[in-house]
Amino acid sequence: MATTLNDLALVLRDRGSFAEAEALQREALELRRKSFGNHHTNVAIALNNLALTLRSQGKLAEAEDLHRQALEMQTNLLGSANVPVATSLSNLGLALQEAGKFTEAEACFRQALALFQKLRGAEHPSVALVLDNLASVLREENKLEEAETLQLKAVAMQRRLLGEEHKDVATALNNLAQVLAKKGDLAKAEALHRQALAMRQKLLPSEHVEVASSLENLALVLRGEAVAERGLQSAAPANPPQTQRTEVRAPERLKEAEDLGRRALAMREKILGGQDLRVGKAFDSLGLILRDQGRLAEAEAAFRRSLEITRKSAGGEHPLLAAAFEHLLDSLARERKPAEIESVAREILTPELETTPHGARLLHARDIARAEASKDTDAP
Question: What is the pTM of this model?
Answer without folding.
Answer: 0.83
